[in-house]
Amino acid sequence: MSTIKPITELRNTNEISEFCHEMEEPIYITKNGYGDMVIMSIETWEREQALLEVYRKLGEAETGLLNGVKPLDGEVVFSRLRAKYGYGEL
What we know:
It is a single chain. The protein has about 90 residues and is an alpha+beta fold. Helix content is about 55%, strand content about 15%. The protein contains 3 helices and 3 strands, in the order βαββαα. It has a 3-stranded mixed beta sheet, with no helix packed on it. The two termini are about 35 Å apart.
């Protein structure tokens, strides 16, 4: 669930920091009753950025499929990964 707090609560920086880390989600800050900014912990930011990267790559893959690019066989991909990283069965 989204957390919304007024900008005046930013005066309590330690509390806001702790809250960001505990909630592990963005906190929406309002100013005069309207949305103004979003704050979050670095861990939450990095997680969100990683998800965006996955979505971007999935979009590229889907576009490739729609444009006739043939996907690699799963066994070929796993064989390459095993060879590259030296693992046995995955």
